[in-house]
Structures are given as C-alpha cells and as structure tokens.
Amino acid sequence: MMGIKIGIIGAGSAVFSMRLVADICKTPKLNGSTIVLMDIDEERLNAVHLLASKIVEEFGSDIKFIKTTNLEETIKDSDFVINTAMVGGHEYLEKARAIGEKYGYYRGIDTQEFNMVSDYYTISNFNQLNFAFNVAKLIEKLSPNAWLIQGANPVFEITTLISREIPIKMIGVCHGHYGVMEIIEKLGLDYNLVDWQVAGFNHAICLNKFEYNGEDAYPLLDKWIDENKEFKPRDPFNDQLSPAAIDMYKFYKMFPIGDTVRNSSWKYHYNLEEKKKWYGYPWGGADSEIGWKWYQNMLSEVTNIIKGFAKLVYENKDKKLSELFENALTGNNLEGHFEEEIRKILDPNQLSGEQHIPFINAIVNDEKAKLVLNIMNTNIINELPGDVAVEVPVLVDKNGIHPEEIYPKLNKRIVRYYLYPRMIRMDMALEAFLTGDVKLLEEFLIRDRRTTSYSQVKNVLEELMNLPENQEMKKHYMK
Ligand code: NAD
Predict the structure, then answer these.
(1) Average pLDDT over residues 265-287
(2) Which of 44, 84, 259, 357 to mutate to test the pocket of ligand 1 (most atoms within 8 A of CB)?
(3) pTM of this prediction?
C-alpha cells in the first residue's frame, strides 16, 4: 500500500519516540511510511532523529523521516498525529507545585483526591490544554481526515475537551491498564486463559471482569491477598498490589488498575508517612516527594544516556546500532533500565506495548487489535453521561473503533463515589479553560480539603498567574 504520514509532536521524548519507530519497523504493512519528528527542543530532536534513523537501518525498513520544529508542517497531510508534548516540561510542573506548597497545598494545587498523579495537571496547566486544543484546531484546518492520538496528559480532560469542541477523529492513549498483567503474573495464571475488562476514566479504571478458564477469578485474587501480607515495592511505581490498592478494592469491590491506584482518596496521601504506609517503604509511591524525585532523577539520567549514546552513534556512522549498543555496554556507559529498553527495541519479535502503532495498523491495514482506549462514552458505560471520555476495551479495525459491552457493569460505589467526583473536577477545569471564568478555578480550590480561607485561594492563583510563562493564562482569567 501507499505509505502513510505520521506526525509525532513532542518527539524529543526519546524513549517514547524510539519505541514508536521500532514498532513501525516491526509492522511490515506500515513500510513506506513517513514520520515527522517535531519538537521545540532542537538538541533533543537531533538526537532522536539520529537514533530513529539508526533503528530503521537496523531493521532494513523503508521509513522516511522529516525533522521539524514547525507544527503546521507536522500536521499538514498527516494521516495520524500523535501528541506527546508537555509544554513547560517538568521544570514548570515543579515551579507550579512549589507555589502550591507555599500556600499549604501539599504536592501542589493540581493534586486532588482521585487525581494524585504528579504530572497530570488539570487547572494550572493552561498552556498544556491550550496547546492540545490548538493542535486539534490545526488538524481540523489542515488535515481534517487525520486521527489525533493524544498521549500527553491530562488525557481525560484533553480527550473530553477536544471530542466535545472540535469535529476531528481522536483517541486518548495510556498504558495504565497493563496493571492487569501484573495481577495475572502475580497470581501465576496463564494469560491465554484469562478474560478481563477494565472500565472507567483515564487513570480511574477498575477490573470489572476477571475470569480464568471461564470462571470468576476474583476468588483467586482474594486468596492471594490473604496469603501475601508483606509488601515490598521494587520501585516507586510498583503499586498494583500495594496496601492502598487492596484497601481501595475492599471499599469499591472491584480492583483498581494501573494509575488508578495512585488516584486514590486523601486517606493514603495526607502526608509522606501515610504514603509510605500505603504505597510501601522507602518511597511512599510515585507521587510522594521522594518517589517523584526518584522518577525525575531517572528521567534526567535517561536523557543524559541518550545524549551520550547519540554522540557515539554520530561518531561511528558506519556501525550498526546493535553493534554500538553492545560496545557501549562493555564500556559500561549504559545502565539497567535503559539497557532493557534498548534490548526490547532491537528485538524484532517484541513490540513496545504502546498502543499507537497497533491502532494505526488496525485502521490502515485492517489488522484487528484489542486495545484499551479513551473515547467518548457513546452508550458504553450507561451509568455515566455521554459527553465524557471513558477508558474502555475496544476492537479496532478498518471500520473504526468497536467498544466491547462492559459486563459486569461498574457498581454504584465506583460510579457515584469515585467516577462522578472525578468527572465533576474535569468539567470544572474544562469550563474554566473555555470561558476564562476564574471563579471556577477558585471554586475548585474552595472545595479542596487543604483550603482554610478564601485569601489562600486568591493568593495561590495570583502567584501562579504571575509566573512569566503564564502570561496568556493570566490574560485569559483576569480579563
Ligand atoms: P518531557 O518533558 O520529557 O518530554 C516532552 C517533550 O515535549 C519534550 O521533548 C519537549 O521539548 C516537548 N515540547 C514541549 N513543548 C512543546 C511544544 N510547544 N511543541 C512541541 N514539543 C514540545 O515529558 P515526558 O515525561 O516525556 O511526558 C510527556 C507527556 O506524556 C506528559 O504529559 C506526561 O504526563 C505524558 N505521559 C503519558 C503517558 C501515557 O501512557 N499516556 C505515559 C507517560 C507520560
């Protein structure tokens, strides 16, 4: 077939881009495609371009690259646009978090019950929402038939916002549902005999169906819980079977999956000691001050390793990537996590697990894929309104996305006491973004358990909007 054009916005996120490029190389029917790598950080972009080209050479694939800092060029004539950009980067997140903490909001004002993920900003991220909104408007204008694949957070808010406001085709993607695999593995089950479903919102999904060999598998999980009281996480993100997850399960009666475990109530997040108790020592989970620092250190380590590796590749243009990788390993330049990542990328039989390329392949080549996607709730979870994006299992083929029937249904506790409060905060954030009514941001914070006075709310918002990078946000809300 004719090659397609895929634009990746925020392509400087190196590991992510390398995973996608390798997945395309391992999907023969996508041979002949053109990938536009777009980022505003030219140094990162150059490194990714070099490594991506080497991956293509390694697999002998026919993939062309365009490298650009221009958004229009990325979107024009694209069939698929992947948005993974984080405007302001981690630096902005930490600046905004520090302002929140100064005014008594532990872990920042965006950290809320049922939304504790530390790079998932819903109200102080005006620039991020605005950027994604503009990307969607540009798609409507320049490539109205293209699909937008939204990977940058906040996926729930952005997927709902764009699907409501802009008539383009879009999905939100996240890999949180792979938490199910950890449960299957821990219980020692054969994956091929497990039938499962998850449903809810992004970062707010539960295991509504869990069967083994055609029978309810929840009793096996209950037994495992009874027999395994010790919890020792291998890293801050290893929380799928943490005491917090089990405690949520006991309350909601269905097991929380993936980032949902992080997105719990304040019960587990009041302070660092509570976090440690519920998410394990020594970190207290990914979203404690210690766990998040661990993540940031890992990210900057990976960024440095990638820079070093790109330099090595540049200086040895005649050598294959696999050869250079083995040399770098002997020279001890690469470390654990990154080594595992590169081995997977170079393994022709393993896909990354990211859903982007299987989705594209299913749409373009009719190679059916079972995925878990964020899409508008058109008669999928009947207990929830239709104008919100839900994260649900679907089958994708050339005719589009076919959601599975969600059965057993989500129960009342999950729908009313977990998803509804989360949805209302999403709605408030989106209405604030669309109308510029600062009273909505204020109301969001007035309802926050950490707020003790109206002046606290006014002051934190004022200081946030006075940041130089928030001029547009200030203009929007303070008109
Ligand atoms: P990062 O800051 O390391 O990388 C993001 C990239 O976006 C950078 O290369 C940056 O230069 C680029 N960028 C910033 N502003 C841009 C702009 N205006 N135009 C184009 N590019 C721009 O961040 P990260 O840790 O890789 O996270 C990226 C996003 O992905 C975040 O929103 C994060 O929450 C999200 N994320 C999603 C998933 C998922 O499964 N959906 C998983 C992990 C992270």
Answers:
(1) 98
(2) 84
(3) 0.97
Split at pLDDT 50, 70, 90, the class of 331 is low
Of all protein residues, whose CA lies closest to atom 11 belonging to ligand 1?
41
First to last CA, the chain: 52
| Domain end position, chosen among 174, 209, 227 | 174
pLDDT for residue 334 is more than 70: no
Average pLDDT, the chain: 96
Phi, psi of 83 (to 5 degrees): -110, 115
Structure token digits, residue 130? 């605005």
Same domain, 68 and 161: yes
Helices (H) and strands (E) in the chain, counts: 19, 13
Query: What's the average model confidence in pLDDT over 442-467?
Result: 98
Question: Which amino acid, residue 211?
Answer: E
Task: State the SS3 of 238-267.
Answer: CCCCCHHHHHHHHHHCCEEEHHHHCCCCHH
The pLDDT value recorded for residue 336 is: 66
Q: Which of 174, 189, 205 marks a domain boundary?
A: 174
| 157 and 202 co-located in one domain | no
Using the atom order of ligand 1, give the atom closest to the CA of residue 90.
Answer: 2
Please identify, by atom number, the ligand 1 atom nearest to the C-alpha of residue 44.
9
Residues of the chain with pLDDT > 90, as a percent, come to 90
* DSSP string over 101-153: HHTT-TT-TT-BTTB--TT--SSS-HHHHHHHHHHHHHHHHH-TTPEEEE-SS
In the predicted structure, residue 337 carries a pLDDT above the cut 90:
no
Please state the domain count of the chain. 3
From the CA of 354, give the closest atom in ligand 1. Answer: 40
* Mean pLDDT computed over 153-165: 98
How far does residue 13's CA lie from ligand 1's centre (Å)?
Answer: 6
* Active-site annotation, residues: 175, 259
Q: Measuring from each residue's beta carbon to the nearest atom of ligand 1, which residues come in under 6 Å?
A: 9-10, 12-13, 16, 38-41, 44, 84-87, 89-90, 119, 131, 151-153, 155, 173-175
Any idea what the CATH number is for the domain that residue 67 is in? 3.40.50.720
Domain range enclosing 216: 177-287
pLDDT value of position 333: 53
Please give the pLDDT value at position 332.
54
